Amino acid sequence: MTTHFSPRRFQDQVALVAGGAQGIGKAIAARLAREGARLVMADVDRDMMRKTAAEITAEGGSVRTLYCNVSQRRSVERLVARILGWYGKVDVMIFVAGVVRGLPFVKTQEKDWDYVIDTNLKGAFLVARAVTPHMVKRRRGKLVFMASTNSWDAEAELAAYNVSKAGVFLLAKTLARELGPYGINSNAVGPGLIRTRLSEPFIQDPKFIKKYETLIPVGRIGMPEDVAGPATFLASRDADFVNGVLLFVDGGQLA
Fold it and tell me: Is 161 annotated in the active site?
């Protein structure tokens, strides 16, 4: 897949990607590093972080990795404190961490609900809550949240996921209104069906794929790199007058 990038667009900027070890997060992290960012990648998967960091370093990118469980406040606070200790600032925060459990609603247990909501929605709140006071002091910053087409159009047997992603988008919109006066832009990306670790079990289902073949006008499943461009656009100075949007990246699925 051909990608287009500017090697200096994020020069001297510190960019945090929460959930950057694989899939969409990895593609975004790699793109930011290629465009000059001082990248900090946070994730719970230490092994995948090491592998991704090695790939980025081999391409000449600047990257540091930190373990972080985004559903735990202390873990998030330690993460941001380390970044501030290293660089003294966070210019860009991209929240990608996410989980899913596909279950009929009548079989969804409290533990299933909490697992998804705590990672996808509470995690977005905790990371944003940790970085935004420092952005406010500097009167600049970019927040990009990974929402979903499910933020807008719910799917059956994904109640917790649908609710979490709708919440992520409304969090992004709320912060756009509150923090815009401080020079901070807050936006969300809404991927459709993208081939990742989370989507693979669904993609293996022939009935699921047959349904989606008729829903996606461009005629293919998306790849993580398809999301990296729109996400890094929202994180860049090119999007200085873009605030509070949900940018769908779905091949026309919701057209």
Answer: yes
pLDDT digits (tens, 9 = 90+) for 190-225: 999 999 887 888 788 887 777 777 889 998 889 999
C-alpha 216/C-alpha 163 separation (Å) is 23
Q: Quick one: CA dihedral 212, 164, 247, 239, positive or negative?
A: negative
Smallest CA-to-CA distance from 169 within 196, 193, 150, 194 is with 150
C-alpha span between 100 and 44 (Å, rounded): 16
Which conformational region is residue 110 in: left (phi greater than 0), alpha (psi within -120 to 50 degrees), or beta?
alpha
In a domain, 45, yes or no: yes
Instruction: Dig out the tokens for 16 from the structure.
Output: 């945090």
**What is the helix (H) or strand (E) element at residue 64, kind and residue range?**
strand 62-67
User: pTM of the prediction?
Assistant: 0.94
User: Which residues form the domain of 139?
Assistant: 14-249
Report the Cα 6 to chain-centroid distance in Å: 21
Do the domain assignments include residue 92? yes
CB 180 within 8 A of CB 243: yes
- Name the average pLDDT for the chain: 95
- How many Cβ atoms sit within 10 Å of the Cβ of residue 88? 10
Q: Which one of the listed residues 87, 115, 161, 212 is annotated catalytic?
A: 161
Which stretch of DSSP H or E encloses residue 123? helix 123-138
Contacts of residue 122, Cβ cutoff 8 Å, sequence gap at least 6: 70, 71
